[in-house]
Amino acid sequence: MTAKTILIVDDESAIREMIAVALEMAGYRTLQAENAQQAQAMIVDHKPDLMLLDWMMPETTGIELARRLKRDEVTEGLPIIMLTAKSEEDNKIQGLETGADDYITKPFSPRELVARLKAVLRRSQINEPQEPIVVQGLELDPVSHRVSIDGHAAEMGPTEFRLLQFFMTHQERAYTRGQLLDQVWGGNVYVEERTVDVHIRRLRKALGAGYELLIQTVRGTGYRFSTRT
Prior knowledge:
alpha/beta, Rossmann fold, Arc Repressor Mutant, subunit A, 5-stranded parallel beta sheet, 12 strands, elongated
């Protein structure tokens, strides 16, 4: 099984390192960010499985970042555990009401952290879309990474697969080339916007006659996936 990736967001490097060591010893991969801006870039680029988020950070606080992520349909499913020195009940309620999945008060033991993290990951996996996504005769299986069209396997590259998966899970909404670059390629990867057009053409070719029409060009905006003509 692939190790889960945990994003640690805290402005104190010593705390990040302590948490990273504990999690890596428990078999997790870790990423670190010292502020909200770094955290958002890493979420786009690396798509972590869970975020450990410090409440008190300069500029954008953890609470503000959590609210922002939960308002965005692309990141609303990211599990968040708040880490904070605030132990009052009102603070805990505020943290959970922003959409955080759990709340751990500093100081905490590495064993407690790992146990709580495992529990949140188990709950989140129950809600993960593991079932194949089916639109008409087009089927995408997120577990086996296979695409079939009318029962026959469709050949496509990994970028086209990610592009199709994003489209099929975000139907009937127009996305700019920049938004597609952020969500499919990652915000910190330098790729020209016209590269999106190249992969759209490849994806349409892989889908073939009939199904290529599901990928619609929206003039002046970008592209959308739609079953409507």
